[in-house]
Amino acid sequence: MSESDMKKFDVCIVGSCNVDLISYVDRTPKIGETIEGKKFEKGFGGKGANQCVQAAKLGGKVAMIGKLGNDIFGKEYLDSLKQLGINTDHVSITDEAATGVAPIIVDKEGQNSIIVILGANLLLNEDDIQKAEDIIRQSKVVVCQLEIRLETVIKTFEIAKKYSVLSILNPAPMSVKLNQNLIKFADVICPNQTEAEILCDFNVETIDDAKKACKKLHELGCRIVIITMGSQGAVVSNEHDQCEHVEIEKCSSVCDSTGAGDSFVGTLALLMAREEKMSLKEQVKRACRVASQSVEKTGTQTSYPTTDELRFNLFG
Ligand code: RIB
Fold it and tell me: Which positions in this protein are listed as binding K(+) (predicted)?
């Protein structure tokens, strides 16, 4: 048995937990306009927890490190993570801020607009990560996104590096230019097209642009680069600077795309933990297929497929 096989967790996620308040509408309202919605759903979201839940639904042994408010949303959220079998030893509760919330609008094409009020997520700090050192050490892969403080992300990656745990940075959301220094802390960076544009300072519209972006992200110090390109699939580049285009099948019916990117990252992290011999291209292809299946149902975590629901074999 290898050292990696002896680890307690496949994936450890350090990131956000938000309660998603989703309104389904025909179209997004204009400024000053009131429109009638068709349906409302409350669900559990947040980029970090979404990735964690997707990996758990696919049978992964996963741990969540995050912060919730001492309120009804926080209590419900913690129960939900526990019910999914996720280790929550380091999901702490604070009296200082409310649980994060995300009002979301989904239009009739299934496209979303999201506002995040991060609340308690922004209180997850370096001390919390230090206390969770053992969980990170016991994981094969650790993942961070950007709905928590940058110092917290850096601390996580420093601990991951200390124990040779593979680290993935999903730089989402990225509203302001990220300190490019952060890139070198992670082994794998996984931006979408827009995030890659902000990181690289040039347009990333075509597959050739994405290949150029991979090169730049390698130069900034990241070993493995994966850029998701929506309907164009993804571009992957490994540590030998071998860049490949991963094509995907067209989604048959898009009902709600909320959290599809997180479904992709959660699945990818699990495959990287469990399928070390699988090529990067194949891991990304399979993660894209899971994410494509997630858009067929409404809601965020509720739309994520379990292994039994998948229309293909994820492992092996
Ligand atoms: O990526 C989707 C997620 O973004 C939602 O669940 C919402 O909470 C925001 O974090």
Answer: 256, 258, 294, 297, 299, 303
Q: Is-catalytic flag, 107?
A: no
Q: Could you identify the residue written with the tokens 């990131």? A: 15
Q: Quick: pLDDT tens for 126-169.
A: 999 999 999 999 999 999 999 999 999 999 999 999 999 999 99
| The model's pTM | 0.96
Residue nearest to atom 7 of ligand 1 (CA): 46
Q: Which residues line ligand 1 (CB under 6 A)?
A: 16, 18, 20, 45-47, 50, 102, 114, 116, 147, 258-259, 261-262, 300
Alpha carbon distance 78, 49 (integer Å): 11
Single-letter residue type at 25: V
Give percent of the chain above pLDDT 70: 98
Question: Helix 280-294 vs helix 260-274: angle between axes, to the nearest 10 degrees?
Answer: 140
What is the residue extent of each domain of the chain? 3-15+50-69+122-309
**Pocket mutation for ligand 1, best pick of 16, 17, 18 (most atoms within 8 Å of C-beta):** 18
Statement: residue 241 has pLDDT above 80: no
